[in-house]
Amino acid sequence: MRQKPPIDSCGGEPVDTLSRRALLRAGVLGAGAMSVGGVLTLPGTAHAAPAIYHPFGGYSITCSWECHLARGSAGGVDFGMGVGTALPACGAGTVQNIAYNGNAGHTVTIHHGEGWRSQYLHLSQFSLANNTYVGAGTIVGLSGGAAGAPGSGSSTGPHLHWHMLDPNGNYVNPLVYIGSNPGGRQVYEAASNAGWRALPVSGSGGAVMASGLAVINVSGTKIIYSSNGGQIFEAASSTGWRNMSTGIQGAQGTALAALNLNGEKLIYSVVGGYVHEASSNNGWRNLNSGIGGVGTSSIAAIALGGVKYVYSIVGGYVHEAHSANGWRNLNTGVPGQAVAAITLGTTKILYVLNGGSVYEAASNAGWANVWTGISGVGGGSIAALNLAGEKLIYTTSGNYVFEASSYNGWRNLNSGVRGSTAAVLSNGGVKLIYAA
User: What is Dmax (Cα atoms) for the chain?
Assistant: First the structure.
């Protein structure tokens, strides 16, 4: 007699367990083979890991993986959220809806391919038909979990339960999986005039995901450039954030910058250790600027008087190159691990992250490096903005974006926007944070 499976922390049983029927089917399929959740797996077979991101970073964890295990569950992560919250797919795949799935309640399974699956439990509503193919970020259902409500199973309060299953049917912590298989993260937009409420950026092709991030404003249209898996994508607010490949490939790390130069859109990335420039005016042909030896974590770009300036990290120091001197890369003498740049009148200003502190260096002061007073920055991302003369710095720490203004003595305040990398722009006087 099969032993009863462990109880889920939400009060339900694991969704994919090995039934007697599955065991019998395995015998028919052949020695060493097992069918788990309708997927045939073979010991020793290699299975490509799917690209997964974390759609629920804005919600608190009410029961961690360890919490589930301690309560006798096979595993899962619970996120507190109100009934009816839209649930984005954590990765591309085919949807399978399982209504009234025992104690797990309404369950959505996303089949990512090669036996990998993600499951959301205790839904109040399904959004798509069975066998619908979805991209990452597509809404697959609405959360539930209210005690006694249809679809809640044995859940005792509103929340979402999320776990993954590998090709062998083993429960996998999705947060650990994402940490072990890094890729792009969901991009969120937050506006200063909406209390920095962060909303996911998603279009008809699914969520905009990024490891590197840059943004520009072209005549009121907000444009996001994201690097993901070495490719660079463009998504514009005027097209409903539809994410389109620019065709640029081979981008390294998180180093990404963009410029709007009189309507010409320009992208700067690092390929093979060199800064490359691509222009919308030449079909995004990615050309080597000759700026070499640069780090792959951070670059910045500005335009002043029609001249394009690129700032990169070479040997631990910020270097400046510009289009008017054939991109000759000169050491500013400013040490740093990450850089952001703005213009203020005819002055070029650098903001540099070095040893957890932020420094300001201006071209009209010979790049003298002055500490802003900002310290304890735990992340490696920095962005900056000139808003009608107010200088603003954005850094990340503890997976939150912080804002500091020259108008408040660089007091560094938590915006409440979650993310480990950030880019910023202004639109009609409104400050916008894009975080991933």
Answer: 81
Burial class of 144 by CB neighbour count within 10 A (0 to 12, 13 to 18, 19+): buried
Look-up of token digits 């974006």: 401
In CATH terms, the superfamily for domain 185-435 is: Fucose-specific lectin (2.120.10.70)
Q: From CA 294, how far away is CA 131, in angstroms rounded? A: 46
Cα gap 387→433, rounded to integer Å: 13
CB count within 10 Å of CB 30 equals 10
Q: How far apart are CA 62 and CA 82, in angstroms?
A: 13
Report how far apart, in Å, the C-alpha atoms of 217 and of each of 49, 190, 421 are. Answer: 36, 15, 19
* Dihedral angle computed from the Cα positions of residues 291, 215, 414 and 136, in that order, rounded to the nearest 10 degrees: -110
Q: Which of 154, 182, 161, 156 is nearest to 64 (CA)?
A: 161
Residue 420 and residue 183: Cα distance in Å, rounded? 13
d(CA 184, CA 401): 18
| DSSP states along 111-150 | EEETTEEEEEEEEEEE-S-TT-EE-TT-EEEEEB--TT-T
What are residue 186's DSSP bridge partners?
209
Contact 146, 101 (CB under 8 A): no
Q: Show me where the domains of the chain are located.
A: 20-180, 185-435
Helix (H, G, I), strand (E, B) or coil at 25: helix
Q: How far apart are CA 430 and CA 233, in angstroms?
A: 24
What is the tens place of the pLDDT at every residue in 318-356?
999 999 999 999 999 999 999 999 999 999 999 999 999
What kind of fold does domain 20-180 have according to CATH? Glucose Permease (Domain IIA) (2.70.70)
**Which residues have a Cβ under 8 Å from the Cβ of 145 and sit 6 or more positions away?**
10, 83, 105, 122, 124, 152, 155, 157, 158, 159, 160, 161
Residue ranges of the chain whose pLDDT lies below 50 = 1-9, 11-47
Tell me how far apart the terminal alpha carbons of the chain are, to the nearest angstrom: 48
Q: What's the confidence (pLDDT) of residue 17?
A: 36
Question: Strand pairing partners for 154?
Answer: none
- The span from the CA of 157 to the CA of 82, in Å, is 9
List, in sequence order, every residue forming a beta bridge with 321; answer none if it has no partner.
310
pLDDT of residue 32: 31
Q: Measured on CA atoms in the order 80, 85, 88, 93, is the torsion positive or negative?
A: positive
- For residue 121, CA distances in Å to 97, 98, 319, 404, 432 come to 10, 10, 51, 40, 34
Both structure tokens of 425? 């722009």
Residue 187 in contact with residue 213, Cβ under 8 Å? Answer: yes
Q: For the chain, state the CA radius of gyration.
A: 24
